[in-house]
Amino acid sequence: MQHKKNNWAWQLLFVLALIGIGFSVYTASQKINYTWQWNRIVPYIIDSSPIETLANGDGTVALSENGTVVIEFDNGDPAQRIEKADDVFVFEGDLVFSGDTISSVNQQSMGVLLKGLITTIQLSIISLCFAIVIGLFAALMRISTNPLSRNFAFLYVEIIRGTPLLVQIFIVYFFLGTIFELDRFTAGITALSVFTGAYIAEIIRSGIQSIPPGQMEAARSLGMSYPKAMTYVILPQAFKRTLPPMAGQLINLVKDSSLVSVISITDLTKAGREVVAGSFATFEVWFAVAALYLVITSTLSIGVQRIEKRLSNSD
Q: What is the model's pTM?
C-alpha cells in the first residue's frame, strides 16, 4: 500500500513538472512578444480550400436544368461543360473571359506538411529495406574467414560510420547521381541505405557473435551446411537479440531522413521550411513538424515493444 502511495506521488510530481515546463515556454514566448496563431498552420496539414474551375476562353454562359454550366466559346471551339460544382459564380447569359472563375468544388486533401510526412515515411521504409540487406551481407562478410571479404566489410563500415551523413548525401547526389543519372529521391534512398546499412552491419555482427559457438557446431554435426546453419539456427536467434538496437536504428533513420531536404526532396523538414516561408508562423510550424516526427517514432517504439513482448512469451 505504501509503495502505491509513493508511486502516485511521483506521478503527480511528473505532471506538475510538465505543467511547469509548459508555463515556462509560455512565459518565454511572452517575453519575446510573440503571438501564437496555431490556426495558420491548419491549412498546411488538412487543405480544405475549394478547387476553382476557370474558363478556358472567351464566351457566353448557359445554365442547364440539371445544374450543368456550359460555356459557348466565341471562336467556335467545343463548349466547356462543368457538371459538378458546389458554388457557381456566373449566371445565364453572362459574358466570361479566359481565366475567369466559373465555379468551385469543396474538398479536403492532405496539406503540404502531411504530404511531406508521407514522403518521409516512404524514404524511411524503402531505405530500411535496402539497409537491412546491405547490413546483413556486410555483417556476414565481417565474420567471414576470408580476409578479402572481411577487409572490404571493415573498410565499408569504418568509412561510412566515420563520415557525416550530410557529406555522404552530397557525394551520392552530385557525384554518383551525375555518373548514373540518379534522381533526387533515388539518391536520397541510396545515401540513407548505405549509411544505415553500416550501423545495421555492426548490430547484426554483434548479435551473431553473441550466439554460443556450440550452436553452429551442433548444427553442422547434424549435417547442415554452413549457409543452412546460419539461416535456420544462428540468424533467427541473432535477430531476436538485436531487435532493440535495430529499432533504435530505425528511429534514427526516420530522423536522419530530414537531411535529404538539402537536395530538394520535399520531405517533412523541407515542407516545414516552405510553410515557414509562406506563413511566417515559425514557432508553430516547427513545433508541428516536431510533433509529426514524434508521432512516427513513438508509433515505432510502441510497435517494437509489442514485438519484444511476443518474442519473450514465445521462449
A: 0.81
